[in-house]
Structure formats: C-alpha cells, structure tokens
Design brief:
The complex is a heterodimer of chains A (632) and B (254). By secondary structure, chain A is an all-alpha fold. Chain A folds into 2 domains: 262 residues, ABC transporter involved in vitamin B12 uptake, BtuC; 305 residues, Orthogonal Bundle (ABC transporter involved in vitamin B12 uptake, BtuC), CATH 1.10.3470. A two-stranded antiparallel sheet of chain A has the order 1-2. Chain A has a two-stranded antiparallel sheet with strand order 3-4. In chain A, a hairpin with a 4-residue loop joins strand 3 and strand 4. The longest helix of chain A has 32 residues. The radius of gyration of chain A is 25 Å and the shape is globular. Chain B has 254 residues and is of the alpha/beta class. In chain B, strand 9 and strand 10 form a beta hairpin. Helix content of chain B is 35%, strand content 25%. Chain B is globular. Classes of the chains: A mainly alpha (632), B alpha/beta (254). Chains A and B meet through helix 18, helix 19 and helix 20 of A and helix 2 and helix 3 of B. The complex binds adenosine-5'-triphosphate and magnesium ion (MG).
Amino acid sequence: MTLNAFLFQALNGLSTASGLFLIAAGLSLIFGVSRIVNIAHGSLYMLGTYIAYTFATRIGGVTGFWGGIVATAIIVGIIGAAIEFVLLRRIYRAPELFQLLATFALVLVINDSALYLWGPEDLLGPRAPGLRDAIEVLGRRLPSYDLFLIFVGPAVLLVLHVVITKTRFGRLIRAATQDREMVGALGVNQAMLFTAVFALGSLLAGLGGALQIAREPANLATDLIAIGDAFVVVVVGGMGSISGAYLAAVLIAEVKALCIGLGVVDFGLMKINFTKFTLVAEFIVMAVVLIVRPYGLLGRPQGAVRSIAEAEEPIRPANVFVKALGIVVFAALLALPLFANYSPYLLVLGIDVLIAVLFAASLHFIMGPGGMHSFGHAAYFGLGAYGAALLVKWMAAPMGLALAFAPLAAFAGALLFGWFAVRLSGVYLAMLTLAFAQIIWAAVYQWEPITGGSNGVVGVWPPAPFNKATVYFLLALALTVPGVLLLRRLLFSPFGYAMRAGRDSPLRAEAIGIDVKRVHWLAFAIAGGICGIAGGLFAFAKGSISPETIHVGRSIDGLVMVLLGGLQTLTGPIVGASVFAVLQDTIMRSTVYWRALLGLVILFLVLIFPSGIVGTLVNLTRRIRLRRKAAT
Amino acid sequence: MSELDIRNLSKSFGGVKAVNDVSFTVKRGEFLAMIGPNGAGKSTCFNMINGQLAPDAGEIHFERRNIAGMKPRDIWRLGVGRTFQIAATFGSMTVLENVQMALISHGRELYTMWSKAAALHRGRALAILGQVGMAEAADRPTRELAYGDVKRVELAIALANDPALLLMDEPTAGMAPRERNELIKLVKALVVERGISVLFTEHSMDVVFAFADRIIVLARGRVIADGNAAAIRENAKVREVYFGTGKTFAGAPA
Ligand SMILES: Nc1ncnc2c1ncn2[C@@H]1O[C@H](COP(=O)(O)OP(=O)(O)OP(=O)(O)O)[C@@H](O)[C@H]1O
Ligand SMILES: [Mg+2]
C-alpha cells in the first residue's frame, strides 16, 4: 500500500483516539481522586448518545445539534453528580470488589432505563450541521466531522491541563490523586471535591457520547463496549493520568488504524488479513504495556495487595452438622429424577443450578481464598463450552471426549491469561480479566467461519441415553459434585494454604519461600479448568452455545452468586449459586426489565447484606453461641 | 569467620540516600544490634539483605556468596529468616498454621494438592511455638492476638527453616518494657543454643546495651560507629546524633 494511504489511516486513527480519550479521561480522573473504578462510566457515555439524539431530532437544526451536545454534556454531568451523591458516597470505604459491583449494578439499571425511555431500536442521529461535507486529504475524502474530532481530543486535553495546573479546583484534584492522606486533611471540602470531580468526569463522558451521534447510532450495547475500551485506555495510560489517557488512546487507535491500513498482506508462504486483528489489537497493546510497565505508560504504582476488608476466620473441616447436611442434599438431588414426572421443568432447573454451582465454586476459589477478583470468569466458561461444541461440530467428537476437552481448553486459556492477571491485583486485575473475557467473546463473535459468529454453534445435543433430562441431570451431578469437592480438598491442601498465604500477606509469603505469583497462577488455571467443565455441561444441556451466553453478564452473574452466598465461606458459593439460578429461572424470566431487577439485587447485597447468606448465618450462630456462653 | 559481609551498600529513593556506602560484617553466632534514629536507613538495609529491595550499588555476601539482588524467597532458602518492623503474618490462619506454612515451604511441599495441610509438621510447629512461648495459643486465629504475641508468632515463623542468619527489624515494637527484655533474652538464648547469627534493630537502648554482642550505629544512611556497648556509649558522634552534644546515655529513657 502507498504511503499516502497509510497517512490517511493514521489521520482516521487520530479522530478515533479523540473519542477514546473523552471516555477514558473522565474515568481516569474519577479514579484518581476517589479510587473508584466507575463501571457505569460507559453507561453515562451511552446516555450521552441518547440524550444528544433526542435534542438533535426534537429541536433539530444547528441549535438542536450543537446546542444539544453542550446541553447533553451538562445534563450527564448533573446525572453523574447525583449518582455520586446518592450512591457512591456510601461506598468509598467499602472493599474494592463491592465498589465495582455497585457501579456495575448501575450499568444494569441505566441500561434498562434507556430501554424503557428510548426503546430497543438503534437510533441514528442527523449529520452535523455545517460539517456535512468531506474534504480532500492525501487524495482521499475525509469527512470534515472526523477532521473536527481530531482536534477535539487535544483541545479537551489542553483545557483539562489548564484546569488541573492553574486552578484551585485543579490543585485539590492533584493533591487528592497524589496523596491519599491529604484528602482527609481537606476536611469538609472533600465531599464537594468528590461530587465536583464526578460531575466533571461524567460531563466528559456525556460529551464523548454526544459527539458520536453524527457517526454511529445510539445503541443499548454501547455502554459495555465503551467501558471496555475506556478500561483498556486507562490501564495502558496509567490509572489517574490524563495525559497518559491521551497517549494510550492515540497508541491504541493508531495500532488499529495500522491493522486496517495493512489489510491483507501476502507473505509468500501465507496471507494474513490484518483487519481481523483490530479487535485483538488493543489487547495486545495492553498486554505488552502491562508487561513492560505494570502501572501503565504514565501511571504510578499503587499500594496494591490482595486483601479483603474484613479479616477472615481460619478454615476448618466441615463439622458433623454440615457433613450430614451435605449428604442429605446429595441424596435429595439423587432422588430428584423421581419427582420429574410431576414437574419435568424441575430437572431443567436442576441442571441449571448444578452448572451455576460449579461455575460459582470455581470463581470463588480464586476470588475468596485467592483474593483475585476476576471480572471475566465467563471466558473460561466460554472456552469450555465452545471447546466442547466445536469439537462436536468439526470433528464429530463423541460427547465424552468433548466434555473431557472442555476443561483442557479452559485450563489452557486460563494458563495463558492468568500469567498476565496474577502480575496485577485489585482493580487492575479485575479489568484485565474483564478485558480477556471480552477478547474471547470478540474472537468467537468475529471468527464466523469457525464459531458461527453471532449465531453460535447449534445442534450440540447429547446422544442417547443422555438426551433424557433425567440421565443428563445425573451426569451433571456426577461431574459437579466431584468438581466442587476437588476444589474444597485443594483449599485444605498445602497448595490451598499457600494460595491463602499469598493473599493474606504477599510480603510474608515471599519471605518464607513461596512464589506467590506462581501459586496464584496455577490456582487461576485450575479454577479456569473446573469452570470449563461447567461450560461443557452447559453446551450439551442447551444443545447450543452463542456469544451472548458467554458475555460479560455471565461473569457478573458469577460475582453476584459468590457474594450472595458469602465470599468468606466455603459453602457460600454453593448456596449463592443455587439461590441465584432459581431466582434467574423464575422471577427474572418474567420481566423485560430483569437487568434492572438484578441491579437492584446487587445494590441490596452490597449496601445492606455484605456478608451474604451463609456469612450472615455463620455470624448469627456465632453470636448465639457467644451469648449462651455468657449466660452460663 | 564472618557469616554476612556487607560491602559498600547504597540505596537511594529519589534524591534521598537512604543507605549510603554502608559496610559491616556479622560473625557466626553473633548477636548484633543496628541502632539509629528514625529514618536512618535500618529497614532499608534489612530490605536489601533479604532481597525485598535491590541495592543500587554494593555487595552482600552470605556464606561467601553474593546475594545482592536475589529474590526474598531464594534468600530465605539459603537460610536467612526475617521479621518485619510491622509484623507480617497470615491473618486467616491459626497460630499453628502460620508456622506449619513455613515448614511446608521448607519441606518443598507447596504444590502438594492432596494431603491436608493442617496435619503436616504439627509436632515440629508446636515445638517451635513452645520455644517462643506461644504453644498455648496454637489454635487461635492470628488476627485475634495482641500485637506483642503476633511478633512472637512472626519469630516462630522465621525460626521454622532453621536459619543461619536471622534479621529482626524492631522485634519488640509495641511491647511493654518487661516483655521486651524477656523476648530479647529468649532470642539470645535460642541464638546461643542453635548458633544462629542475628542482626536486629531496636529502639530501646537498655535492651541493646544489655544483650547485644556488638552495636552498629547508623545515621542518615551512614555507619557512624561500630563496636561494643562500652565503646558506643563513649562515642562522641553517637552522642551527638542521639542527644546533641554533652549528654550521655546514663539517663536515657528506654
Ligand atoms: N520505599 C521507599 N520509598 C521512598 N523513600 C523511602 C522508602 N523506604 C524508605 N525510604 C526513606 O529512606 C529513609 C530510610 O528509611 P528506613 O525505613 O530505612 O529508616 P529506619 O532506620 O528503618 O527508620 P525507623 O526507625 O523509623 O524504622 C527514610 O528517609 C525514608 O523516608
Ligand atoms: Mg525501620
């Protein structure tokens, strides 16, 4: 290709970079000051697209479009401030995990609000008044709106720079970002500062969204796509660094532009279509940056530990009561097929519950005792499910082989991604795992000839006699119970202790010869493998697998299950997954607005019920026992 | 014969020379105190010896091997135990399990996935806990202990791999004066019994002068004195650093 074509793509990249920067800058700013990673930031961006669309179409003309963009930014800024005031203010001191979940709950609620207000259709805005034409650049036609966008990014960067370096507000922001102790010393101002920063960050997100309406339709999937991009940009640039965000936005946009520019290249031996790499490009950039500079291009190290808010009780082997209960539950499950005649749906529900239990238990394994809060566990579910399904589709493999392959595929994936993930902790780890899950999702979505794209793989039915729900249920039971018991056994083994040691105090663990990263890496891979079994079971239970079923929503479901049961208990994930799966199959199926409902459940858990079902029960019995002891 | 030989060790943080061209040795079986005002660079020295920090310059020879820049876990395997200024233990484990963890690691059983950790090395762990006077508390969660007891647990962990050299950064911080004396006495007895070399920091001068075989004084990253208790007491530079000129240690509060 010619040099001109290259330069043209580079120009295109710069206009994309501006969009990325606007979303990322606000996220980074908010994180820098409040240390909250606001997952709902992408939702604010999405709201920006919808609100600006409404202005542009209802009022119309120059006022409706350009005035609408300004008004939208301000409105979204106000919404952000309101969110901070009503919700986030309550969770500044909560564990990171809860903060992430609370803001994710907002994503769900906002998404359903948008669905309610604007409907499910994509809404394409008008073209920008005054910038409808295209101009000749490097022998090609560049829409003048894109040219305009190229300048928006640097302009906003400049304004932010001036605000941050020259004003009192900016000094406060810098003080808060660089020195946490100082924020406390600010006293009364602190609350105001946080609200103001949320307003500013949200305003930027709203502006970013509003500016997009001339290029892309408003769409309900925008929120997660935007937050995914923003995460990558912020992680690459360094959390809390605004200039880093711009640098990263340009870097990522240019790498993507380069991929498009290269197109199909013939290397003689083989042809490589580089345009296929656009979805993975940002991942590769992020991986490289994180290896070389774990805290991003311009970021500073965080005092990051895999800690949990409340210290945890030592783990003890199950007492007689729990063991007996376990046996009773197992016997009841074995007997479940006997009742199937009265209610065939019972078995379908039972299979769903078992899959959920295995999924949640494997997530809990790394999240609780390992302290690694993975926000992308769906990746390993997906690798297991697709691994099994594709083996059936392309190799006509028998079910047994496919089910055996599922955990291997997931294990291999978790081994690869885990190597990166364990190098980080806290929100960095959460985001990186989320990004990996998005990559897997994007890969199966894009790689249509192999994976069937958005339609997924169909016709993955189990052969006789497993095609009967009764038998398949027993098969699921036969895989789930040993899987859960295996994880439990591991927790009591030296390996499980080493994993917990690495979480409790990496400093002490390394000082007694434990290679914490290696232990956590292996644990991550094992959890991935077990999760893969759940994925394999899922594919055969439903007869199909599609990208939608392995999307970020499933990762979040897993987190909710674990929290619902109680993060710090070993039986928690089992109870949590069961309750959640039953709820999901009953109540949530009965409303269009199940996302908002789920969001409210999460908020309830985080704000009112943080130790989960089993955790609360344990606390209660302990309190009763103490009182009895005091009475005698 | 010297066990630990530190040569021209330096480390800066930004513009601050935390440790500046420090050289000293620890002989086998020696009970050596490193003292100095806050910020003198003591912890930074310790962090370089056990591998927490890589030195900017200098060499650290342990049993005739340069260990500068090695990882903490590898240095531990060579036989260097460490306790931290702010005690680091495993909060979600019992006192006994904390020591078992170190023994499991010492026995290279970290990747064992089937046996039960709680059943491994119980006897040995209990014996070590007995030595530091914590056997009674073996089954209590570590996070429930008083800080002084956590320090003892940490000591027990550090003793688990039969170290040749023990680095103790303020082992008695947070303890009452009597408890301090007892703990240091205990450590000294263990050291004599097992022939371990110890390098420790301590803010209580009473303890240092009563028990240390030799004392190194650090100030602003430099060694300003190195000698026995009497020599340090009389050293003019040390007096100046600690009290300004003219005063003596005689009336110093512990
Ligand atoms: N990680 C670090 N980053 C920046 N500066 C550091 C770091 N660690 C130590 N310092 C600085 O190095 C100097 C020496 O610190 P160090 O902790 O070694 O002193 P110390 O003698 O152990 O003091 P104390 O008696 O208070 O424990 C101090 O000025 C300290 O602020
Ligand atoms: Mg110190």
